[in-house]
Amino acid sequence: MERQARSQPSLPPGPRGAAWLQTARLVRDAEGFLRKNVARYGDPFSAPIRDGTVVFTGRPDLVRDIFAAPTDVISPYAPEHIASVLGPHALILLTGAAHKHERAMLMPLFHGAHVSSWTRTMVEVTRRHAGALKTGDVNALDLCQRIALDIVLGVIFGFSDPARQQQALDLTLEFVGAIHPLQIFFDGLTAHLPAVGPLGRWPKAQAALDAFLRDEVARRRRDPLAGHAPGQTVLDMLLAIRYDDGHALADSEVCDQLRTFLVTGHETTAGGMAWALDAVHRDPAIYARLSDELATVDGGDGDSDGDALGRLPFLGAICDEALRLYPVIPYVPKRVAAPFVLDGHELPIGTGVFVASALAHMNPDVFPEPERFRPERFLERRPTAFEYFPFGGGAKRCLASGFATHEMRIVLGTLVAHHRFQTRGGPLRPVHHGISRGPARRGPLIHSAA
Ligand code: HEM
Question: Is the pLDDT assigned to residue 441 strictly greater than 80?
Fold first, then answer.
């Protein structure tokens, strides 16, 4: 209330260069862009971005205010751009009652016992993919992406036919591989540029995945058990959703949600796991401590007691630290949809508000020596939800954060317990892949059988 009284109809200071230039800087090097501007203008600062002015912050008190706002006050940023990739009904874009309703239906699939029920699959999938590795160069991101997608396909569809699962995997990898990072800022980007090179892949990849999803939805509507292993899946839940007036989701709405889960459900986790795998093998002391810890679980043989693996503190701290130092979503993009006061500024409706974990996670008061990969920090002190937020926060917080952290631990623990890797070259550079960020594909690990 007091804040309200002191509010000014103004924006925080910041750079005022051409919007396209600021957008390019942000996409190319988010950390550099954010830190340079905070050093010059303070936190929060504002900058012109492709769709208008955006306010950036990583300050815990302001992050708390933003996460506490309802979704019809602080709503998703530039929904038309995300919609051009995931579809207009994607959960990540929904607000208000529809968001609450659909989220509540899907949430139980990603919590508690449901998460643990996936442990065995997580171990098996990891061992299958890693077991097929030859001695020599391995791209950590490619390996983790295939593992994460194979796992999440089970949660989304539960195929009993391996050929259908493989088809879904190939189509999804082609789809995310064809997404251009600038599509998040320019909807219809591909329509304005010649369909050559990577951009030429997009329409074909989009159409192929769409046809597959529509076909799968039609099959399940005809016969809920068709090609389907027992157990509840995201698709089952989507088909079961009913609104108060009894209406169900249309096929296009179901497909948008499936696309959302396919993309958000593997790229992010894969990026986190690849960073963690790389970091563990860059520091002999971390590797030794983790190996000792893994040996306490069934001799390091993660498959018979995967849940114990999921509870190992140092392994968990490594995953937390990977998501801190290399956030796969360095800023959560939001927009002011109704009057909102931030740090005394009454932000005009339509202003972007980007909540930057890439800033908050580097705060030396919360994370001493922030540039260092030091997992122990998470064993010494748990940061608050406004100091550390790789999964965003508030009503839109990642609904699968519990699933994702469990998965990262199981996959990383299984890989380290059973395989030998060495890093090659200098530290990996973060780059955008699809809608999230991960290590650049160059700079592989070298694998040798354990
Ligand atoms: C390390 C892995 C992951 C990270 C870092 C991550 C991060 C995020 C972030 C930052 C958001 C936006 C939150 C906000 O707006 O405040 C989000 C939303 C979401 N994530 Fe994740 N995510 C991960 C894994 C997953 C997985 C495995 C799935 C599904 C299987 C998933 C599904 C979703 C969905 C559906 C939303 C939209 C939620 C909503 O709008 O209510 N994510 N995630």
Answer: no
**Ligand 1 atom showing the smallest separation from residue 404 Cα:** 27
Q: How far is the CA of 329 from the centre of ligand 1 (A)?
A: 9
Instruction: Answer whether 437's CB lies under 8 Å from 356's CB.
Output: no
pLDDT for res 4: 46
**CA gap 53, 379 in Å, rounded:** 39
| Residues paired with residue 446 on neighbouring β-strands, in sequence order | 137, 422
Collapsing DSSP to helix, strand or coil, 400 comes out as coil
Write down the pTM of the prediction: 0.92
Closest ligand 1 atom, CA of 76?
A: 15
Question: What is the four-CA torsion angle of 24, 25, 26, 27, rounded to 10 degrees?
Answer: 50
Helix, strand and coil in the chain, % to nearest 5: 55, 10, 35
Instruction: Write the pLDDT tens digit of every residue in 124-137.
Output: 999 999 999 888 88
Rounded average pLDDT over 392-415: 96
Q: What's the CA gap between 123 and 127, in Å, rounded?
A: 6
Angle at 150 (CA atoms; ends 318, 289), nearest 5 degrees: 20
Quick one: tokens of 65? 């205010």
pLDDT digits (tens, 9 = 90+) for 60-93: 999 999 999 999 999 999 888 888 889 999 999 9
Q: What confidence tier does 172 reach under pLDDT thresholds 50, 70, 90?
A: very high
Cβ(268) to ligand 1 under 6 A? yes
Ligand 1 atom nearest residue 234's Cα: 30
Nearest C-alpha neighbor of 34 from the set 432, 362, 394: 362
Tokens representing 210 are 């769409």
Q: Measured between alpha carbons, how far is residue 190 from residues 27, 199, 210 in Å?
A: 17, 6, 17
Domains along the chain with CATH numbers: 2-449 (1.10.630.10)
First to last CA, the chain: 61
Q: Are 328 and 144 in contact (CB under 8 A)?
A: no
Nearest-angstrom CA–CA distance, 352 and 345: 13
Report pLDDT digits (tens) over 3-46: 444 555 789 999 988 988 898 888 888 999 999 999 999 999 99
